[in-house]
């Protein structure tokens, strides 16, 4: 791994765990084990690091969505991958919240010029979820439903961060899985008869 990549990886972790505003050049340099002079060779400002972190998160999430597209045979199965990610990351979420939501919220509070760049992460998931819902035949309200699922997932991560009760997150995950199942088109009796004949 290059020094630049190591800086971005360390900054990504620190921004998530401690917040962007509370992470300094010195914190990142110490985490990577380099001098400040070497650090400035790669990044001149914290905003440059933030931009690189956002780009990294977008790239990582794109790869994850492509993987879900490959393993999920149906739109329902692919959407379930999105929801089950909350369970996979439950410990991190319990400690630090959602990496997407916390960064976007912090940058909004700071009125940071890179706030719209962080929004790209939500746009990426929104667009991907919308495509899955459109595959159900829900064209007209697909975007609204995508926003609804995003909203439910963000609410679940907030609750998991506020309340240490594991059952709360499990309940919210199941609620989202049921919501997805309700969206899934059910076979009509005519279709069942055709399959049997």
From TrEMBL:
Q: Which GO terms describe its molecular function?
A: DNA binding
Alphabetical UniProt keywords: DNA-binding, Transcription, Transcription regulation
Q: Which Pfam families match?
A: TetR_C_13_2, TetR_N
Annotated DNA-binding ranges?
24-43
Q: What region holds the HTH tetR-type domain?
A: 1-61
Q: Which InterPro entries match?
A: Homeodomain-like_sf, HTH_TetR, Tet_transcr_reg_TetR-rel_C_sf, YxaF_TetR_C
Q: Could you confirm whether the keyword Transmembrane helix appears in this record?
A: no
The UniProt entry, under PROSITE patterns, shows: HTH_TETR_2
Quote the protein name from its UniProt record: TetR/AcrR family transcriptional regulator
């Amino acid at each position: 791994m290059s020094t630049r990549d190591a800086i971005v990886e360390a900054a990504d972790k620190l921004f998530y765990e401690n917040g962007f505003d509370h992470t300094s050049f010195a914190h990142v340099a110490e985490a990577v084990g380099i001098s400040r002079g070497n650090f400035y060779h790669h990044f001149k400002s914290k905003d440059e690091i933030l931009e690189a972190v956002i780009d990294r998160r977008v790239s990582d999430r794109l790869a994850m969505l492509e993987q879900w597209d490959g393993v999920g045979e149906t739109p329902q199965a692919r959407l379930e991958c999105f929801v089950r990610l909350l369970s996979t990351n439950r410990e991190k979420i319990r400690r630090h919240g959602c990496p997407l939501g916390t960064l976007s919220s912090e940058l909004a509070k700071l009125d940071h010029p890179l706030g719209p760049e962080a929004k790209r992460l939500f746009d990426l998931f929104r667009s991907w979820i919308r495509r899955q819902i459109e595959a159900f035949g829900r064209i007209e309200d697909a975007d609204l439903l995508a926003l609804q699922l995003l909203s439910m997932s963000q609410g679940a991560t907030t609750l998991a961060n506020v309340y240490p009760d594991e059952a709360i997150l499990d309940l919210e995950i199941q609620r989202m899985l049921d919501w997805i199942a309700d969206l899934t088109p059910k076979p009509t009796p005519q279709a069942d008869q055709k399959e049997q004949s």
